[in-house]
């Protein structure tokens, strides 16, 4: 089951061709996107996702349709989703630069079911490998044209990293910077715990600002936890009290193995972290 909507709320057949062969999103990956989890008709972190979509578009100097139009498309997908059969959906918002010279972007919202492998990672946790990303953590400030913190359609490297992880028998990858510090996963933010403190890499390191990580930290702070945005070395993954990958659809997946070595996992702490995140909703 899939539901496709345009920004005026029109529902279209997802099997019908939509993208022109000369669309710059197809030819060059010139576009932006967001993926939002919707549970029982309620989109999670819709505001932060739309904020991030707008920021990514600004970095690309991409004309983005108005926020109200995206909200209309989101509501159209939600209203046409078979909630009796599927209590969750993964909702993707996509905007490309369109056809060169037209100044008319291609934009749509597409709802998909949440897959079994995603549900497995939520409940069973994941194994991960560390992979070099090839840039320094201060590169974003020195070279903003590299779009390091934008969520663009150019996801070839991210998907290559996931295939490399699979080839090595792991579920996920964790990118590292040239100084040995931890960056992010190809489709997730890395969170670790030290006592009652949660830590994640700051967006200034060139990573994507996390919506799920942000929701977790917001709830943790209300519950009396300390939260920090700071750089940390790979070694800290092995000495922390717990490591998680936070993403919009996989939610808060605990990491039980990194580079073939088991890392600390406390089921009670993990449940507390999950409950903190869920308390937002």
TrEMBL record:
Entry keywords, A to Z: Lyase
What InterPro entries does its record include?
Answer: Aminotrans_IV, Aminotransferase-like, BCAT-like_C, BCAT-like_N, Class-IV_PLP-Dep_Aminotrnsfr
Output this protein's name: 4-amino-4-deoxychorismate lyase
Gene3D superfamilies per the UniProt record, alphabetical: 3.30.470.10, D-amino Acid Aminotransferase, subunit A, domain 2
**What NCBIfam families does the database record attribute to this sequence?**
PRK07849.1-1, PRK07849.1-2
Species of provenance:
Saccharopolyspora rectivirgula
Q: What is stated as this protein's family in its record?
A: Belongs to the class-IV pyridoxal-phosphate-dependent aminotransferase family.
Q: Does the keyword Transmembrane apply?
A: no
GO CC annotations on file: cytosol
Q: Which GO terms describe its biological process?
A: carboxylic acid biosynthetic process
Keyword Glycosyltransferase (UniProt): no
Q: PANTHER family attached here?
A: AMINO-ACID AMINOTRANSFERASE, AMINODEOXYCHORISMATE LYASE
Question: Which Pfam families does the entry mention?
Answer: Aminotran_4
Superkingdom as given in the UniProt entry = Bacteria
Query: Which GO-annotated molecular functions does the record name?
Result: lyase activity
């Amino acid at each position: 089951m899939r539901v496709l909507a345009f920004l005026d709320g029109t529902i279209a057949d997802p099997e019908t061709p939509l993208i022109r062969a000369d669309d710059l999103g197809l030819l060059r990956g010139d576009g932006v996107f967001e993926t939002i989890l919707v549970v029982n008709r309620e989109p999670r972190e819709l505001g932060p996702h739309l904020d991030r979509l707008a920021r990514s578009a600004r970095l690309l100097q991409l004309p983005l349709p108005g926020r109200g139009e995206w909200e209309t498309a989101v509501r159209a997908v939600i209203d046409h989703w078979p909630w009796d059969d599927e209590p969750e959906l993964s909702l993707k918002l996509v905007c490309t630069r369109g056809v060169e010279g037209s100044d008319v972007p291609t934009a749509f919202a597409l709802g998909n079911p949440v897959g079994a492998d995603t549900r497995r990672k939520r409940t069973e946790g994941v194994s991960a490998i560390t992979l070099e990303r090839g840039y320094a953590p201060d590169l974003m400030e020195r070279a903003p044209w590299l779009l390091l913190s934008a969520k663009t359609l150019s996801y070839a490297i991210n998907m290559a990293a996931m295939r490399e992880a699979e080839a090595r028998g792991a579920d996920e990858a964790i990118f590292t910077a040239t100084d040995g510090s931890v960056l992010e996963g190809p489709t997730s933010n890395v969170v670790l715990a030290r006592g009652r403190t949660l830590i994640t890499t700051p967006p200034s390191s060139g990573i994507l600002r996390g919506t799920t990580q942000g929701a977790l930290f917001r709830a943790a702070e209300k519950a009396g936890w300390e939260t920090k945005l700071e750089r940390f070395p790979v070694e800290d993954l092995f000495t922390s009290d717990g490591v998680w990958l936070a993403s919009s659809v996989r939610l808060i997946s605990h990491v039980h193995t990194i580079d073939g070595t088991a890392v600390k996992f406390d089921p009670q702490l993990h449940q507390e972290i999950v409950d903190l995140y869920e308390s937002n909703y």
